[in-house]
Amino acid sequence: MPNIKSAKKRVKVIATKTLRNKSYNSALKTAVKKADLAIEAGAADKTEAVRAAIKKIDQATAKGILHKNTAARKKSALARKLNASA
Hints:
Blueprint: H1 5-41, H2 46-62, H3 68-85
């Protein structure tokens, strides 16, 4: 356990940020899974699902949760799957 006042505050701040990041990450994973399932099932709204997933990826990147290259890779993979199913 930290003894210094600033170190104690850092522990609290890190805990708060960790929870927030987990929330964003969870929402991102859910959107990507929904898009994957829509593509595999050939759903009528698969384009919308992919668009929503890409938006979540961009938001996570803007907040610093994903690295920009990771985001580009994920978006590219979704686009490839969507175009292959068309």
